[in-house]
Amino acid sequence: MDVASTLVLARWGYFLSVMILFGSTLFPFYALNRSGTASRAQQPRGINLALALATIAFAGVWLVSFAAGLTDREGTLEALSGVLLETGFGPVWIARISLVILLLGASLWGPPGFVPAITFLILTCEGWQGHAAVWGIVGSLSQAVHVAAAAAWIGGLVPLGRLIVAARRDPTATAEVVTALGRFSSMGVAAVALIAVTGALNTWQMLGGVPDPGDAYGRVLLIKISLFAAMVCLALHNRYFLLEKRMKVAPAQGLRTLSRNVLLEQILGFAVLLDVSALGLMAPNM
Ligand code: HEM
């Protein structure tokens, strides 16, 4: 596999693992009742640990393949120390590596709030990395909010999906799903609004206008925006049709459609992350 493809896949693996970890460990804090039923959606420590290890592994492959892309095979180690110690984004990489090591400890021994807090800090590193590194403080903050809001949504779909599957097996959990979906949707409305506004700001930072389908960067961004629009349509259908109507008259059927829609929303979200794993490495043909 060539260095460029390795870089895209490593970034995808990195975004998938750190975003699922953030969204799924944040979910219990806003979507679940504090009483007895938390266990159905609570993420086992083993899964948090596996996602933390995946985050470290993919961050490592990303960094090494980035350095390898700057030189020939012999010079990779030298390029690596050069990237970390002699570039403007070296300190961001050092911060990210330190935080993912801290994350490992938090996923093993930390109280439940530590994992979402540390993964939030890891996600904000994107504001001072790649294209965003030259966007100034407003641009960097916009990118940090963009990535964190996207992670809350895409990562939160995992425990929500788990809860729906549990309720299909045990109908006594249906009330918990209705509560969690209502609260998740309210978080989702805020996340979608933040993603759209910061996405538009990022687009303006990169292009100074709307994406041009005649340009490769523009096409990849337009695909991303279309996937985002499809996700929003599914989320609106879940909220205003399935939750408000179908779940009240036919809960079993509602749960079946809901589990399919949440899975589809999840797959579209993973496709957006693959798209942006390439987009962040491309330059608009200005
Ligand atoms: C579910 C929806 C979305 C997700 C998961 C998402 C995720 C991301 C991520 C992870 C990055 C950082 C990439 C990096 O650091 O290299 C990013 C950057 C960006 N996003 Fe989004 N985003 C979403 C929606 C949008 C929308 C709707 C727009 C446009 C309106 C948008 C425009 C951008 C732009 C222009 C960048 C900068 C890319 C670059 O560095 O060249 N995003 N997005």
Supply the key terms:
single chain; 286 residues; 9 helices; mainly alpha; binds protoporphyrin IX containing FE
Explain what you see:
- There is one protein chain.
- With 286 residues, this protein is mainly alpha-helical.
- The chain has one domain (3-279).
- It contains 9 helices and no strands.
- Helix 1 (3-31) packs across helix 6, helix 4 (90-109) packs antiparallel against helix 5 (114-124) and helix 6 (136-169) packs antiparallel against helix 9 (251-279).
- 37% of the residues are buried.
- The structure holds protoporphyrin IX containing FE.
- Protoporphyrin IX containing FE (HEM) is lined by residues 15, 126, 129-131, 146-147, 150, 154, 195-196, 199-200, 202-203, 206, 221, 224-225, 228, 231, 269, 272-273, 276, 279-280.
Q: Give the ligands present.
A: protoporphyrin IX containing FE
Low-confidence stretches: none
For the residues shown, what is the average pLDDT? 92
SSE order: HHHHHHHHH
Largest sheet composition: none
What is the C-alpha radius of gyration, as a whole number of Å? 20 Å
Helix content: over 70%
Number of domains: 1
Task: Tell me, briefly, the overall form.
Answer: globular
Separation of the first and last Cα atoms: 29 Å
Give the strand tally.
0
Short characterization:
The protein is mainly alpha-helical and 286 residues long. Helix content is 80%, strand content 0%.
Topology:
Layout: H1 3-31, H2 45-70, H3 76-86, H4 90-109, H5 114-124, H6 136-169, H7 174-207, H8 216-249, H9 251-279
Bound molecules: protoporphyrin IX containing FE.
